[in-house]
Amino acid sequence: MGRLDGKVAIVTGGNSGIGRATVLLFAREGAMVVVSGRRQDANEKVVAEVAAAGGSALAVPADVSVPDDCRRLVDATIAAYGRIDVLVNNAGIADRHLPIDECSEEWFDHVTRVDQYSVFFMTKYALAHMAPIGTGSIVNVSSIGAGGVAGIAYSGAKAAVNAMTKNIAIRYAATGIRCNAVAPGPTPTPLNAPEAVATFHAGFAEQCGRHIDITLPTASAEDQAQAILWFASDASRSVTGQILYVDHGTSLYG
Predict the structure, then answer these.
(1) Angle at 28 between CA 140 and CA 126, to 5 degrees
(2) What are phi and psi for residue 143, nearest 5 degrees?
(3) Could you read off the pLDDT of 89-129 as tens digits, one per residue?
(4) Contact 55, 28 (CB under 8 A)
(5) In DSSP terms, which residues pair with 33 in a beta bridge?
(6) What share of the chain is helix, strand, coil (3-state, %, to 5)?
(7) Coil, helix or strand at residue 86
(8) Which domains does the chain have, with CATH numbers?
(9) Across the beta sheet with 32-37, what order do the strands follow?
(10) Fewest CB atoms within 10 Å of the CB: 89, 128, 143, 182?
(11) CA-CA distance, 234 to 5, in Å (whole number)?
(12) Averaged in consecutive runs of 10 residues, what is the pLDDT profile of the chain (254 residues)?
C-alpha cells in the first residue's frame, strides 16, 4: 500500500524542482495530486509524467500571490476530487541575496507576496474544506534562509512562514489537522541554476556564506520530497508545528 493511498493533495509550484519531485513521489504513493504553477504547459508535462507511471493528477494554473487564483485552485480541487487532504505550499521565488540597502520596496513586496502571502492565502482557503472534516496535513516549504542567511526579503518571508506554521499548528492542535514545514538547504533546482545565481548580489551572498557551511553535500529535490511526504503521511500523525531542516547540517555552522 502507498503511504498516501486515496488522499488528495495540492502542490503549489508543482511543475519544477522540489514541487515536481513531490508530485511524482506523492503519485507513486497513491495520492491524487493537483499540480499548480503559473505555466500551464509545464503543469501538464508533470501531469503527463504522473499518468505515464499509472498515477492520477490534475493541472491547474495559478499565481498563488493572487488571492482569487488561490480560491480558484482550491475550488478546482474540490470540484474534481471532493476534498483536500494535503496542501504543500511550495511555490516561491529566489531572492537574489539583496541586502536591505540594495533591496527596492517593489522587490521586497514581490518576494513577500509570493513566498509569504501565498502561504496565508492557500492555507486559509484550504482550511475551509479541511476544518469541517477535522483532518488534513499542511506542509510549508521554508528555507534555511529564514535564519537570515539570504536576502532581506527572502529571509523575512521565510521566517514568517516558520512563525505561521507554528501559529496554524497551535490553532488546530486539538483536531486532526497538522501544519509543519520543511526547510531546505542548498538544493539544485531551477531557482539556483547558474543563470539564476548570476543575478544574485555576489558580495552579500559571500557574507551570508560565512555563517553556514557551504562545503557540505547538497540535498536533492527528491530528498526534500521525502521529508515533505513524511509530514503529509500518517507516519507523522502526532507531529505538528515543527520545522525540519533538510540540509546535511549546513545551517548548524551558523
Answers:
(1) 35
(2) -175, 155
(3) 999 998 888 999 999 999 999 999 999 999 999 999 999 99
(4) yes
(5) 9, 57
(6) 50, 15, 30
(7) strand
(8) 8-253 (3.40.50.720)
(9) 56-61, 32-37, 8-12, 86-89, 135-141, 176-184, 243-246
(10) 128
(11) 11
(12) 94 97 98 98 98 97 98 98 98 91 96 98 98 98 94 97 98 98 86 70 81 88 98 98 95 77
C-alpha cell read off for 208: 551570508
Number of H helices, E strands in the chain: 9, 7
Collapsing DSSP to helix, strand or coil, 224 comes out as helix
Q: If you ran DSSP here, which 8-state letter would residue 102 be given?
A: G
Nearest to 154 by CA among 195, 214, 196, 216: 196
Contact 210, 199 (CB under 8 A): no
E-assigned strand segments in the chain: 8-12, 32-37, 56-61, 86-89, 135-141, 176-184, 243-246
Q: Residues with catalytic annotation?
A: 154
Phi then psi for residue 56, to 5 deg, are -120, 130
- Write out the three cell numbers for 188: 539544485
pTM: 0.94
> Do 166 and 106 meet the contact criterion of CB atoms below 8 Å apart?
no
Nearest-angstrom CA–CA distance, 148 and 140 = 18
d(CA 91, CA 253): 27
Indicate the angle between helix axes 152-172 and 105-112, nearest 10 degrees.
30
CA dist 6 and 83 (Å) reads 11
Beta-bridged to residue 200, according to DSSP, are none
